[in-house]
Specification:
By secondary structure, the chain is mainly alpha-helical. The protein has two domains: 265 residues, no CATH class; 55 residues. It is built from ten helices and two strands. Strands 1-2 form a two-stranded antiparallel ribbon. The chain starts with a helix and ends with a helix. The mean pLDDT is 84.
Amino acid sequence: MRLLRAEWSRLFARRLTRVMILLLLGGLAAIAVGSAVDSHRPTVSDRATAKLRADDARRFYERERTDCEQARDRGEDITNRYPPNCDFSRVTVSDDDYLPHQFVFRTDVPIFITVAAGLLSLFGFLVGASFVGAEWTSGGMANLLLWRPRRWAVLTAKLVTVLLGVLLTSVLALGALVGAFWFTARYRGMFGALTRGFWESLALTGARAVAFGMVAAVAGFAIASLGRHTAMALGAGLAYALVVEVGARIVLSALEVANPDRYALSSYAAGWLEKRYELLAPAADCAAGDPGCGPAPYVITWQMSAAVLGAIVLVLLLSAYVSMRRRDVA
């Protein structure tokens, strides 16, 4: 417990940790303020204008349907200009489509929490990497092991401290963000139907966002511990982004590999945060009007994402522990 208390104090005493907390809060505040400024409760004039624009759109599609039927009766090829069989039933026009944007708590908050998960992952990765990387660079790890020579216990204490710190910061930050959205809905938007099921779903979305940040913290911690330097984690993250997320996708696409995005971790991150992420299959030569034509999309579920991300983090963490056990500290 003494070691954990010492590590806890050291974590929040570090300048980088404080700066990252401020940047995280600043980014979330920018999201909240931007959504509030962009939200606008429609006035009577707005609704009247929206109705006029919607009526214009309805008349336009009615003219398109008439032109399509006339072209079809003349025997012209309409496949490249109009829907099959001049069927415009899927085109729906509502007055609400032309109203100014209004923040809706029920539909918008889950989306913004998913966006905030990206900031939490960046925060966790940098804090986790710098907390252990700075200890190796400054020689603090060697000094600490003179006081507490049990290597795995020291590394575990640092890891637990990082996870608790990221967990606490993420929960408080997301709670403040949801509170800000509540005020936005109260004064500049609307709430929608806030049922028990909605709150349960929102809590699970927030939990996945927090867990994603903690996974990123473990990854940054493990890579920096393996390389004995914070820059090792930063370099590995940058190299992965350039080589896999960009380079490998270009190569696989050039080789016409089906759904190359399924080999990128960003797709599994999206699957975890959104519970289900579909990768669109390549277009196929289909007959006009055949809705069942073409291959099925590749679906990434949150269970698949948890298995892939968990396996990668586990391998990195075990490697860090093995490396800590076998090598000299000085």
